Amino acid sequence: MAQSPFRRMTTPGGYQMSVAMTNCGERGWITDHTGYRYDPVDPRTGVPWPAMPPAFRDLARRAAEQGGFTGFAPDACLVNRYEPGTRLSLHQDKDELDYAAPIVSVSLGLPATFLFGGMARSDKPRRFRLVHGDVVVWGGASRLAYHGVAPLADGEHALLGRQRINLTFRKVL
Ligand code: MD3
Ligand code: FE
């Protein structure tokens, strides 16, 4: 966070996201007026994203293994910061090359309502509460499901204060 600070990025449609983001690993997810992509360099600083800490990589690999995906080797970790009122609208994660690899998410801080939809945006999403310490493995049929996060309710978390941090581990190369 010190090397590559959180920032609110702009979508290709010209909207500023309410969620603030940063990355670590060989690639980081970014969006700007030209589109979405994974880039080795932080456009804010002009230097590569910070390395993925081995403890992060190992946690993601062990979680994927428990979910039935052996040998998960993430090369990107997107870090999302939610403050009260911020949300992530329904979307699919389609910017990775290999949909056979799962995505592993780690929730920290305030609880959130995760929206888990179907293969069409119009499918009514199911709601799941994600709390501090939850780790979820999204693979197979779920990998391309629409999903999002409902507006974050205000609160105070003992370790993280008035925010939720979510890590998503991805294999993008
Ligand atoms: C289900 N993040 O960064 S993590 C994202 O809580 C994203 O910040 C949410 O959606 C968050 O793209 C949800 C859980 C997650 C991540 C990727 C998925 C669920 C997924 C990809 C496919 C299906
Ligand atoms: Fe997503």
Automatic annotation (TrEMBL):
Q: Where along this sequence does the record place binding of Fe cation?
A: H91, D93, H147
Coiled-coil blocks: none
State which gene encodes it.
Answer: alkB
> Is this entry keyworded Iron?
yes
Q: Name one Pfam family in it.
A: 2OG-FeII_Oxy_2
**Keyword set, alphabetical order:** Dioxygenase, Iron, Metal-binding, Oxidoreductase
Give the source species. Answer: Bradyrhizobium diazoefficiens (strain JCM 10833 / BCRC 13528 / IAM 13628 / NBRC 14792 / USDA 110)
Cofactor(s) for this UniProt protein: Fe(2+)
The Fe2OG dioxygenase domain covers: 73-173
Database matches in SUPFAM superfamilies: Clavaminate synthase-like
Record has Iron as a keyword: yes
Instruction: Give the binding site residues for 2-oxoglutarate.
Output: N80, R81, Y82, R164, I165, N166, L167, T168, F169, R170
Relay the cofactor remark from the entry.
Binds 1 Fe(2+) ion per subunit.
Positions of substrate binding: W29, Y36, R37, Y38, D95, R121
InterPro entries for this protein: Alkb (IPR004574), AlkB-like (IPR027450), AlkB-like_sf (IPR037151), Oxoglu/Fe-dep_dioxygenase_dom (IPR005123)
Source taxon at top rank: Bacteria
PANTHER family recorded: ALKYLATED DNA REPAIR PROTEIN ALKB-RELATED, NUCLEIC ACID DIOXYGENASE ALKBH1
Q: What is this protein called?
A: Alkylated DNA repair protein
